[in-house]
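Checklist before submission:
- one chain only
- standard amino acids only
- sequence pasted in full

Submission:
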Amino acid sequence: MKKRKSQYINYRILWFWVVFSILLILTSVVIMRFAYSGQIVLYTGAILLALIILALIIVYKYIYVPYRNTEKLLRLFVTGFTIQDTFNLRYPLSPEMDAAIDKVHDIIMTKELLNASKRQAQYLALQNQINPHFLYNTLEGIRSDAIIAGIDNIANMTEALATFFRYNISNLENLVTLEDEIQNAENYFMIQQYRFGDRLRMEIEYNESEKEEIMQCRLLKLTLQPIVENAIIHGLERKISDGLLKIRIELTASRLLITISDNGIGMYEEQLENLNAHLNAAFFESDHWENTSHGGIALINVNNRIKLLYGEEYGLYIYSIKDKGTDVQITLPRKIDEKMLRHLEVE
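Returned file contents:
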């Protein structure tokens, strides 16, 4: 609910000075009117004393007390209290302060919802852990029968599918190595190739001299595969000629840059601007999710998880030209698994 202007302390101070100034002006007029009266000194003293007392009462009751209450609630919040009252200041200093408090409240509530969703997902994964084992055993049975029957393509596809599910379902870790992410993306691509055949190719580019360091970079699990899937479904699937998907990896002094490119159907400029606007919006602003395509939601999901973990300076940005292709650039902090890297160097 929008607060009335009278509830903001800065407006109260402003109105007080306006009213007090008007009263002083009126008092001055009265004094000048009766300047030659013998009782002018008495009247002047009585009026000024009354104005001072009235001003002190107004300042104390309507400015000082609300200010002290607001200061006390903010001090509680700074020292660690996150009770609801600290986000419902009865007398904020100004509309800008009120808006800032609401924004902090939205951020904290969003993090609480995200943590609750994460706990719920982990609980469901544990509750249903028999289901992945059943799935793996079933796929392994199909694969064994396919090998016995000499149908290698079905055996390979079943193995790829089992590996894909095992990575996505069983591992609850948030951070994985880039090597694991690439393997998962390649596995997903292999499954898709059974649909498209030779029409679809994937290339991975990086500086060979930096390979060990690149592969031990840490990033959020399921960063690459959703973008690869999005590129295939929304970019390459509707392309008549052969499709090329390219993953280009670069290291800078402080960042890991990954660009996933396709030579698919691309996007119109208006659609591209709209999608980048969604990506640049604050992750807790739910209205930015409305009227977004399924592919857009997949990209926004990856982008929001990156921003939530690393900060607003990281995330996704998209470049696209209609009928030419699309580039999705992922910007991440350069975080290396030093322990694993040292182990590899020893070997």
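Reviewer check: Residues 103 and 244 are 43 Å apart (CA to CA).
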